[in-house]
Design goal:
The complex is a heterodimer of chains A (about 350) and B (about 300).
Chain A: E1 2-3, H1 17-20, H2 38-62, E2 65-67, E3 70-78, E4 80-86, H3 113-126, E5 132-138, E6 142-149, H4 152-162, H5 173-184, E7 193-199, H6 207-219, E8 222-229, H7 251-261, E9 266-271, H8 274-287, E10 290-298, E11 301-302, H9 304-337
Parallel strand pairs in A: 4-5, 4-7, 7-8, 8-9
Antiparallel strand pairs in A: 1-2, 2-11, 3-10, 5-6
Chain B: H1 5-28, E1 32-38, E2 40-46, E3 56-58, E4 61-63, H2 65-79, E5 85-92, E6 95-104, H3 109-117, H4 131-144, E7 150-155, E8 180-184, E9 191-192, E10 194-196, E11 202-205, H5 222-229, E12 237-238, H6 242-252, E13 255-258, H7 263-273, E14 277-283, H8 286-301, H9 304-311
Parallel strand pairs in B: 2-5, 2-7, 7-8, 8-13
Antiparallel strand pairs in B: 1-14, 3-4, 5-6, 9-12, 10-11
Helix pairs in contact in B: 1-8, 2-3, 2-7
Classes of the chains: A alpha/beta (about 350), B alpha/beta (about 300).
Chain lengths: ~350, ~300
């Protein structure tokens, strides 16, 4: 328990005032004329004790006692997700150019891959109440601009900002994945950990880079999901019989092959249309409801009411006795006047 | 003044009764709505190389301009009333990049600070610093955000490559449509600019022959070219470019404050120019009611007799 205005507690000695005050007593010619009455004495002392309690309780209530905001751990259903959204220039190009897949125009939707990604990420984040999200911003460089957080507001604001403006230079997926791994370093293992990579391009990694990525993913127990936004229609990540020779050895395929060789769970979703993109997000959504340790923020709780209750009950007693005294005294005075 | 005994008793009973009613009101009166003025802001922080210059001080410590900008942003966010929103953006090359759209400052303080702490020169995507163009993009993007935030642009005003006075990039929007403040950072002496490598470590300084000293476009224009040729070759050094920032801020209808001492300077400036929103907050009157009850009770129990006896 803590106090909002602890300095007000210095007023507590004022609770002794009822013991100093004699102003409600009648002036007596000679004290010994008063009859000694044990019951009266006891009642008098009790009323003073009550008055002291009332004053003390009021001072404490005004000092605003409260339990400060704190976090409690409970188990929830979800995962810890690091979002890796490609910020490169190619993401500005339109996604799924076929017009049948046009989204409603009232959203002022620019159909770039980045806006589409932003839209579905927003849906995804909003639909998962218990998840903890982090966000890595990457093009050629990567920085974990949003470390894992429970706040939906900041996560959504970061995703929204990702849809503003134009894209940056090129993509370097290796630094991005490394960064994603680092985001979990020093974190307690709470449950499923996901790296969600959304990108439209691949990359040929050096042996050293591959080694480092595979190490970091394994060390941190991560699952990798790659939502691949297809740039060339028809091309798949896995080789298909009778396909164009041009696609063989494409950087995307290299990356896909490398990801498949990893010891960690990996799944690729190839999105060539909005429907496929939505399906991919839904698929991930369904897979990851495992038990997760969640921190919940408990709001600050005021305890002032308890003190006010004490004060009220006490004062009710005092007021009642005072009114009783008054009625008795005024009756006595009236009768003497006759 | 003296009152008869029954009157005194009655008065005491009455005051106690009022006090009791106050406590009851404190317990059961519903919270009232109170309006507070909040604003939406977008902090754009310069992360170009010239921000690595250590020529500003916070307290007794001399720190670099970027650290100063971050600390100033932190304190400003801290000074805003709960309910205000703040977003974060960085600027490098010729554009501003919004990293988080405005979020409520009290509930999200931790996340805002986490993001702010990540701002480093290594996040820059190119090695130039076109302040005015970056400012224009910040304004344009701020318009896409609802509710539209007030832009706070923290920079030293160093344009690299330099811009000729008469050949400014055009500002095509309406000046003042998006309100904003430019916060000038840096000392007034020209000092060398540290050069950072890809890990953000400082590796020597920008040399005189490594930077452009003239506006390339001005060189091809008669009169401008002449002026251009006579410019001192000091672009590898940096100081706070106050007059330049004043010009830029006038052009876009912003306010300019140079090296403010306290976050209040900025907040006051922002309150003047921003459209503040009225945000209703729930406000509990119990403290006031309980205080009245307390004062009334203390009046009842004050030892008046102690004072009056001295007079007799």
């Amino acid at each position: 328990m803590s106090w909002s205005h602890p300095y007000l507690l210095y007023l507590l000695p004022l609770a002794l005032l009822p013991w100093l005050s004699r102003n409600t007593e009648k002036q007596i010619v000679w004290e010994s004329l008063l009859p000694q009455d044990v019951v009266s004495t006891v009642i008098g002392y009790t009323l003073r004790v009550v008055a002291s309690i009332v004053i003390a309780a009021l001072i404490m209530a005004v000092a605003e006692p409260h339990i400060p905001e704190h976090t409690v751990q409970r188990s929830g259903q979800g995962a810890e997700v690091i979002i890796l959204l490609d910020r490169s220039r190619s993401m500005d190009q339109p996604f799924a150019r076929r017009h049948t897949y046009r989204l409603s125009t009232k959203m002022n939707f620019k159909e770039s891959k980045r806006s589409v990604a932003r839209y579905y990420l927003t849906e995804f984040v909003s639909s998962r109440p218990d998840d903890r999200f982090g966000y890595v911003f990457f093009s050629e460089q990567a920085s974990g601009i949003l470390p894992l957080t429970y706040s939906k507001e900041t996560t959504l604001a970061t995703i929204e900002a990702g849809g503003l403006g134009r894209g940056l230079t090129k993509t370097d997926i290796s630094v991005a994945l490394k960064k994603a791994g680092e985001m979990f370093e020093g974190e307690v293992y709470r449950g499923a950990r996901i790296v969600l990579l959304i990108s439209d391009g691949g990359q040929i990694l050096s042996a050293e880079q591959e080694q480092r990525i595979s190490q970091i993913l394994q060390d941190n127990n991560l699952s990798l999901y790659w939502i691949y936004l297809r740039s060339v229609s028809g091309m798949t990540l896995d080789e298909m019989p009778g396909e164009s020779v041009l696609w063989q050895g494409a950087p995307e395929r290299h990356l896909h092959t490398f990801f498949k060789s990893l010891a960690v769970p990996y799944q690729a979703f190839e999105a060539g249309s909005l429907d496929e993109f939505a399906a991919a997000m839904k698929n991930i959504d369904q897979q990851h409801y495992q038990t997760l340790l969640v921190e919940r923020k408990m709001p600050r709780e005021s305890l002032a009411d308890y003190f006010l209750w004490v004060a009220m009950v006490g004062l009710l007693l005092l007021t009642a006795s005072q009114i009783y005294t008054w009625s008795g005294v005024s009756r006595a005075y009236r009768s003497t006047r006759h | 003044m003296s009152l008869s005994y029954p009157k005194r008793i009655f008065l005491t009973a009455l005051v106690m009764l009022i006090s009791l009613l106050m406590i009851m009101a404190a317990l059961w009166l519903p919270q009232v709505d109170r309006e507070i003025e909040v604003m939406d802001s977008l902090f754009v922080i310069d992360i170009t190389d010239s921000m690595n210059v250590e020529d500003v001080s916070f307290g007794n410590e001399t720190i670099n301009r970027l650290e100063w900008a971050k600390e100033y942003t932190r304190q400003s966010i801290l000074s805003m009333p709960c309910g205000s929103h703040a977003g974060l953006a960085i600027f490098s090359e010729a554009r501003s990049l919004i990293l988080m759209t405005p979020v409520e400052v009290c509930a999200n303080y931790h996340d805002l600070m986490q993001m702010l702490s990540q701002f480093r020169p290594t996040m820059a995507w190119a090695r130039s610093s076109e302040v005015s163009k970056a400012l224009y993009t910040a304004i344009r993007q701020a318009k896409e955000i609802t509710p539209q935030p007030t832009v706070v642009f923290l920079t030293d005003g160093h344009e690299a490559p330099p811009v000729h006075e008469t050949l400014f990039p055009k500002f095509t929007d309406t000046p003042g449509e998006v309100p904003g403040v430019i916060v000038g950072i840096g000392g007034s002496d020209l000092v060398p600019i540290p050069k950072t490598n890809e890990f953000g470590e400082i590796e020597g300084y920008w040399e005189i022959n490594e930077v452009m000293h003239k506006d390339v476009y001005a060189s091809s224009r008669g009169d401008a070219a002449e002026l251009n040729d006579n410019r001192p070759r000091t672009e590898h050094l940096s100081s706070q470019k106050k007059s330049h920032m004043e010009t830029v801020s006038r052009r876009v209808g912003f306010e300019f404050i140079s090296s403010p001492k306290s976050p209040q300077n900025l907040i006051k400036e922002m309150q003047k120019i921003s459209e503040t929103r009225q945000q209703p907050v729930k406000y509990d009157l119990f403290v006031w009611l309980a205080s009245i009850a307390l004062i009334l009770l203390l009046l009842v129990f004050l030892p008046y007799s102690m004072f009056t006896k001295q007079h007799e």
